């Protein structure tokens, strides 16, 4: 199965029954498969006129009670930012798949990149937060798609699944889980009478039950600052609570949300921090380094946001060198690692931004070069 196909199948396994999207390379296979599969499952597939309409339709479908998602790439993801801000403010559970390709703008439309890391986190204005996951294998495309819906429903938040083009178009054999094998979460329903229902009456660090549009409950959602009843509220005390609640419902559950994997880190001297396609290359480089007498281990970040700062710090403290390979110009992930490990650590970035994948040899060269030597990038 191809990574994009696995994402679509994972979404359907999770209970997604609504897809609205606009075809864009390199995510189009997700839409193609959903167009075939959703009607057979009693779901809805709509090809929209653009990505603005796509995310708007997804938000509407979610508020009507459906598990809903869309898929896009960089240019389309840019167009979704305003309505993603609405989904964050309105606490609307939904999933957006951003298959990363080379930019800026239209860029290299069919080539890989990992340059959307900061846009995923900070693309909307104002104080806001969401969850972002990054698969490295076709199996993870499936399982993290399921996890994305679970997080979206549990925390009433948009979740971005951000594979790079390499992972999205990788084909490999996987064993699909049986029905019921993976846990599936549903949004909580109101347990009060309709007259007593407040769609945003949550304590700090939690979320309120969400009633569906069209039910006996009245659910009012606005992009403006609103109170527990969903209607506009400009009181400073209300804004203090509202913004803190949007952040704390994620921050207080970060240990549940932050997902990582480790490989050969028990006795390492060199730590590789990888995500997406660089994980496979990093693991190959680490094995070759060990064959040459350099003890290397790999920390794979499956959750990108919230950033796995504690996990990075704990492993970096045991390594003499930290290497961060990524397919972008400025070292977006390495910058976050540097914040965690401080200036005293030998941190080496391996960057590439020309639409080609970072190879194991590139990472191995960075591990083996003398301290202080300048890396050659492309």
UniProtKB/TrEMBL annotation:
Record-annotated Pyruvate:ferredoxin oxidoreductase core domain positions: 269-363
Keywords: Oxidoreductase
Any single biological process term in GO: response to oxidative stress
Pfam families: PFOR_II (PF17147), POR_N (PF01855)
Top-level taxon: Bacteria
GO MF entries: oxidoreductase activity
Residue ranges occupied by any Pyruvate flavodoxin/ferredoxin oxidoreductase pyrimidine binding domain in the UniProt entry: 9-203
Name this polypeptide is given: 2-oxoacid:acceptor oxidoreductase subunit alpha
Native organism: Ramlibacter lithotrophicus
Lineage: Bacteria, Pseudomonadati, Pseudomonadota, Betaproteobacteria, Burkholderiales
């Amino acid at each position: 199965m191809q990574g994009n196909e696995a994402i679509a199948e994972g979404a359907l396994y999770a209970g997604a029954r609504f897809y609205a999207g606009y075809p864009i390379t390199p995510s189009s296979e997700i839409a193609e498969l959903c167009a075939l599969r959703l009607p057979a499952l009693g779901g809805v597939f709509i090809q929209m006129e653009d990505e603005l309409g796509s995310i708007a339709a997804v938000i509407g479908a979610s508020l009507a009670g459906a598990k809903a998602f869309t898929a896009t790439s960089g240019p389309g993801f840019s167009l979704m930012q305003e309505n993603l801000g609405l989904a964050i403010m309105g606490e609307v559970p939904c999933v957006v798949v951003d298959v990363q390709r080379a930019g800026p703008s239209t860029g290299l439309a069919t080539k890989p990149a990992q340059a959307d890391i900061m846009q995923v986190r900070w693309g909307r204005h104002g104080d806001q937060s969401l969850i972002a996951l990054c698969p490295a294998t076709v199996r993870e495309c499936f399982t993290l798609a399921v996890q994305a819906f679970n997080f979206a429903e549990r925390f009433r938040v948009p979740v971005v699944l951000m594979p790079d083009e390499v992972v999205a178009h990788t084909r490999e054999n996987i064993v699909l889980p049986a029905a019921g094998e993976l846990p599936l979460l549903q949004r909580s329903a109101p347990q009060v009478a309709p007259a007593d229902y407040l769609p945003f009456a949550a304590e700090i660090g939690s979320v309120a039950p969400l009633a569906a549009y069209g039910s006996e409950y009245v659910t009012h959602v606005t992009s403006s600052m609103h109170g527990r009843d969903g209607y506009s509220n400009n009181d400073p005390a209300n804004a203090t609570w509202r913004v803190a609640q949007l952040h704390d419902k994620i921050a207080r559950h970060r240990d549940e949300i932050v997902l990582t994997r480790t490989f050969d880190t028990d006795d390492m001297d060199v730590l590789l921090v990888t995500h997406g396609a660089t994980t496979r290359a990093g693991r190959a480089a680490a094995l070759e380094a060990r064959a040459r007498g350099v003890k290397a281990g790999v920390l794979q970040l499956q959750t990108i946001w919230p950033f796995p700062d504690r996990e990075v710090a704990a492993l970096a403290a045991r390594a003499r060198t930290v290497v961060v390979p990524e397919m972008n110009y400025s070292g977006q992930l390495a910058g976050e690692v540097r914040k965690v490990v401080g200036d005293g650590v030998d941190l080496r970035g391996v960057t590439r931004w020309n639409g080609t994948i970072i190879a194991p040899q590139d990472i191995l060269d960075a591990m083996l070069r003398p301290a202080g030597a300048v890396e050659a990038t492309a």
